[in-house]
Recover the amino acids of this structure.
């Protein structure tokens, strides 16, 4: 090959490599929720084993139930725990009653109290999950006005405390189906209440999770990144990359969102789960690494 031709070819090849490298560069820093470790309000002590695994595996941040954070904070140990494992807190998760108007005042006070705990310990977001209902008897149309008003009040209380917040739809709750999600998100005051979906639960509920994510990009600021296979374990969910959710499309959409987004991997637990919480996290991490995501040393 002539030297000039070779030089031109080499420049084009290197330029192509740089372009591909730039295209593959990921901005999102992936965190993890402590649900798989059963760090629940009744077992807050399990948070430490979750943080140890997050630290070992290099996840960028964590989320757990706001009540778990309060339990540690009340005893004066939360800041020390976070410092010990060097995994920063992103968010607290809180179930709120959006159906019973008689509980609203008390719930607003709870939101404000727990939001302060999250904020105090470096968190930026409070996830608002609706209460469970008997879906066979539940009539969304009759509850819609109260659901939207409640979320507005709770979101305002959280933002007044200095946190971002948003709706986390959930199977078996007052906001489950795709139609309910769209109705609520088109009805709430999105200056305060953003969208914080669980994409695995969207898929399990019959929605095209990737499509929903694309349609709500401007107000989607927090996400539980979960896969769904419909199998016998993990309530039908599975480690990332083993299910039906179009995770690549979802992550690409959020990479181009144009605003900060919290991405938190999550997987449900069950008593007969065949592998440990850490092993599921290792599997999901390996999948994300194949997509080009980086983890802390």
């Amino acid at each position: 090959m002539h030297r000039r031709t070779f030089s031109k070819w080499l420049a084009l090849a290197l330029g192509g490599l740089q372009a591909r490298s730039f295209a593959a560069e990921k901005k999102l820093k992936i965190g993890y929720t402590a649900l798989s470790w059963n760090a629940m309000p009744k077992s807050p002590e399990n948070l430490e084993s979750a943080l140890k695994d997050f630290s070992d595996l290099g996840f960028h941040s964590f989320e757990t139930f706001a009540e778990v954070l309060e339990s540690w904070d009340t005893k004066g140990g939360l800041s020390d725990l976070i410092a010990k494992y060097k995994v920063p807190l992103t968010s607290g998760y809180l179930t709120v009653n959006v159906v019973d108007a008689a509980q609203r005042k008390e719930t607003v006070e709870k939101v404000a109290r727990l939001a302060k705990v999250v904020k105090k310990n470096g968190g930026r977001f409070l996830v608002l999950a609706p209460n469970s209902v008997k879906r066979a008897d539940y009539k969304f149309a009759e509850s819609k006005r109260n659901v939207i008003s409640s979320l507005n009040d709770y979101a305002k209380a959280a933002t007044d405390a200095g946190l971002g917040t948003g709706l986390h739809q959930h199977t078996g709750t007052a906001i489950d189906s795709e139609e309910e999600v769209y109705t609520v998100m088109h009805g709430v005051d999105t200056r305060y209440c953003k969208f914080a979906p669980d994409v695995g639960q969207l898929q399990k509920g019959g929605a095209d999770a990737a499509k929903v994510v694309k349609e709500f990009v401007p107000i989607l600021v927090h996400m539980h990144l979960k896969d769904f296979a419909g199998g016998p374990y993990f309530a039908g969910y599975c480690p990332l990359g083993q299910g039906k959710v179009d995770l690549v499309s979802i992550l690409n959409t959020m990479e181009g969102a144009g605003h900060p987004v919290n991405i938190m991997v999550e997987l449900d637990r069950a008593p007969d789960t065949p592998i440990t919480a850490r092993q599921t996290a290792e599997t999901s991490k390996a999948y994300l690494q194949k997509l080009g995501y980086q983890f802390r040393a």
Q: What stands out?
A: The radius of gyration is 21 Å. Residues 3-24 form the longest helix (22 residues).
